[in-house]
Amino acid sequence: MIQANEIRKKYLEFFKARGHAVIPSASLIPENDSTLLFTNSGMFPLVPYLAGERHPAGNRLVNSQKCFRAEDIESVGDSRHDTFFEMLGNWSLGDYFKKEQLEWWYEFLIEELKLDPKKLYQTVYAGDPAIGLGKDDEVVGIVKGIFKKYGIEAEEGPATTEKGEEGPGQEIDFDRERIFAYRDKNWWQRGDALGELGGPDSETFYDTGKPHDPKFGKHCHLNCDCGRFLEIGNSVFMQFKKTAEDWEPLQNKNVDFGGGLERIAMVANNLQNIFESELFRPIIEKIEDLSGKKYDEDRQAFEIVSDHLKAAVFIMSEPAGIGPSNKDQGYIVRRLIRRAAVYGRELGISDPVWIRQIGDIVRRIYKGIYPELEENKDFVDAELEKEEQKFTKTLEKGLKEFSKIDQSDGVSGEEAFDLYQTFGFPIEIIEELAKEKSTSVDKEGFERKMKEHQELSRTASAGMFKGGLADQSEETTKLHTAAHLLLAGLRQVLGEHVIQKGSNITAERLRFDFSHSEKLTDEEIKKVEDFVNEAILADKPVVCEEMDYEEAKKSGAMGVFDDKYGNKVKVYDISPYSREICGGPHVTHTGILGKFKIQKEESVAAGIRRIRAVIL
Q1: What is the model's pTM?
Q2: Would 453 be classed as within a structural domain?
Q3: Can you tell me whether residue 350 is helix, strand or coil?
Q4: Residue 363, exposed/middle/buried by CB under 10 A (0-12, 13-18, 19+)?
Q5: DSSP 46
C-alpha cells in the first residue's frame, strides 16, 4: 500500500520538480474573506492572485490545503464524503495552461501512483450559448492524446446539456467512451457577485467497479450519484471575471487544480471507501475499542463519528482559538461534536470522556504534518471535555422530552424537528427511539421543516457574509488597509500581546478579532480610533516590498498566521504606523480612507475580543 503521507509528499515533489513553489496550507479560518466561514478549497486563499495580484513565490504554486465543507455534514456516512479533507492543489498564474496541466496530472496518476489508465475518465465543458462559449474541444483533443500515450483509444461519449446529475439519458459503452461533456457540472465560478472569477473545468473520475444502482437513474454516467465513478481531481481553467453584462476575460489565463487526498489514497490502494485508509482507520479502530462493535456492523455511525471529531479537532486547533459556541464557526464545531456524541451513544460508547481520546488519535495520524494540532492540544482537549459534559446533560433532557411526546399517532415532523433543533438529535436517532417504542416518525414532515430551516439559514448567511475582500472593490480594499492600522493601534494602546485572530471584511464594515482578555474602556477605544485617524490624516504612502519570510520578520513586520506564509512574502509598510506581512490588495496612500469609527467591541471567546468598525 502507498500511504497518504507518501502521496502528499510525491505530489509536492512532482510539481516542485516542474518549477512550482511549495506554499504552506492556509488556516481553516479564512483571513480577510467574509464570503465563507471556512476555507473550503485550495483556491480561496489565492483569490487575489488569480485575480491579478502578483504572488511573492512566483506564478507556479503547489500545496496541500486543509479544507472544511459544512454543506457535506449530512452527506457523511456514504463512505465517500467527509467534511474535513486535504486538497492537493497546483496553480498556474498566467503561466502554463490546459495542455501542461492535464498531461502532468495524468503522468502523476499513472506513472507516480501506478493507477490503471483504463479506470480513468474525463469530463469537459459542453459550452453554453447563453454566455457565448462553445464546447471545450481543445481539452477533448488533449485528453485523447494523453490516453493514446498510454495505449488507449478514447472516444467522446454523449453530452449532457441539462441537469448534470441526470446524465445524457442513454446507455454508455465505458470500454470505448472515456470523455464526456457536461454543461452545469463543468463550469466553475466562485459566486454570483460582480467581480467573481470563473471558467470551464475538466474533472477526472475513477471507476471503482461498484455496480450501478437503478434508483439513481436507468443509465449510469460519470456524475451519477450511485457511486460507481468517483471524482478525484478537477482542473479549473480560470480565465473570466463576472461583470454586470457577462463574463469578461481576465488579464491572465490561470489553472486552479484541486484533488482530494483522501479519495486519491482510496483509489491508489484499491480500497472500497475513504475510511479504510490510514487517515481514518486508526480512529475507526479506537471507536471499535470504545464501543465493542465492529465497523461493518454500523458503517454510517462509525464514519460520522470519525469524520466529525477529526474535523472539530482541526478547526479548534487553529490559532484563532475557536471553541464550541452558538454562532459562526463555533456553532459548526458544536454541531459536529454533538452529532458525533449522539452516534457514539447509538454505538453503545459509555466512557464519560471518550471524545477527548479521539483527539489523541487525530494528532497521532497527522504527527509532524500539522504542528498546530500539538501546539493547541490543551485548549482543544479542555473544550472537547467541557462540551461532552454539557451535551450529556442536554441529551438526557432530550430523551425526557421524547418520552413526553404522545406517540399514539407516531412522532410528527414538527416534533422530530424540534428534537433535532433543540437537542441535536439526528433523524436516524429519532427513528431508532421511535422503533424502540414500536411507533413511527413522519420523516417527510421532518424533511419539509428541515428544508424551511435551511432556506432561512442560507438567507441569513447571505446577509451576514455578503461581499468580501475577494471582490477587491474600492471600499473593501480601504477597510483592509484600515485593518492594518487598527492592529497597530490596538498594540500601541493595549500592549504587544495583541495579535490578530481573524477578520471579516465587506464593503460596508470591518470585523476584527484579536487577543485580549479584558473589555476595552471608552478611553481605550477612543485612543485606538485616534491612532488610526491620525495615520489617515498623515496621508502616508502604502508601500509593498517583497522579501524572504525570515527577512520580513527581522525587519519588524507583523505576521498574522505564521503557518500560512511561504519563503517569499509581501510586506505592506505604512511608516511609521504599521508594517505587516499580507497578500494584499491595499490602497496606495492612507489619505483616501476617510474617517475611521469603531461601532462595537465585544467578547467572542476566552481571551479573544472583536471590534466592528466602518470608515465614513
Answers
A1: 0.76
A2: no
A3: coil
A4: middle
A5: G
Alpha helical stretches, state H, 232-298 = 261-268, 281-291
Using CB atoms within 10 Å of the CB of residue 133, give its burial: 0 to 12 exposed, 13 to 18 middle, 19+ buried: middle
Q: Which strand (E) or helix (H) includes residue 258? A: strand 247-260
Please answer whether residues 578 and 474 qualify as being in contact, where contact means their C-beta atoms are separated by less than 8 angstroms: no
pLDDT in tens, 321-362: 899 987 788 989 998 998 899 899 889 998 888 999 999 999
Tell me the C-alpha to C-alpha distance, in Å, between residue 371 and each of 9, 317, 367, 563: 17, 9, 7, 9
Q: What is the number of domains present in the chain?
A: 3
Q: Name the residue with cell 479537532.
A: 313
Q: What is the CATH number of the domain that holds 515?
A: 3.30.980.10
Boundary (domain end) residue, out of 224, 241, 273: 273
* Distinct helix (H) and strand (E) counts, the chain: 17, 17
Work out the angle between the directed axes of helices 281-291 and 354-365 (0-180°, nearest 10).
Answer: 160
Does 387 share its domain with 485?
no
Q: What is the dihedral of CA 401, 406, 412, 417, to 10 degrees?
A: -10
Packing angle, helices 328-346 and 281-291, rounded to 10: 50
What CATH number does the domain containing 15 carry? 3.30.930.10
Same domain, 297 and 242: no
The one-letter amino acid code at 433 reads L
Question: Are 236 and 186 contacting, i.e. CB atoms less than 8 angstroms apart?
Answer: no
The model's pLDDT over 577-600, given as tens digits with 9 standing for 90+, comes to 999 988 778 888 999 998 999 999
Distance of alpha carbon 383 from the chain centroid: 22
Give residue 170's domain range.
Answer: 4-273
* Cell digits of residue 128: 453554453
Give the contacts of 273 (CB within 8 A, at least 6 positions apart). Answer: 79, 80, 266
Helix (H) or strand (E) holding 504: strand 500-505
Check: CB of residue 442 under 8 Å from CB of residue 411: yes
Distance CA 468, CA 450 (A): 28
Last residue of one domain, picked from the residues 362, 397, 432: 397
Cell of 15: 510539481
My answer on whether omega of the bond before 45 falls inside 30° of 0, hence cis, is no
- pLDDT average, residue stretch 165-184: 95
> What is the Cα gyration radius of the chain?
25
For residue 516 the three cell numbers come to 485580549
255 by DSSP, 3-state: which? strand
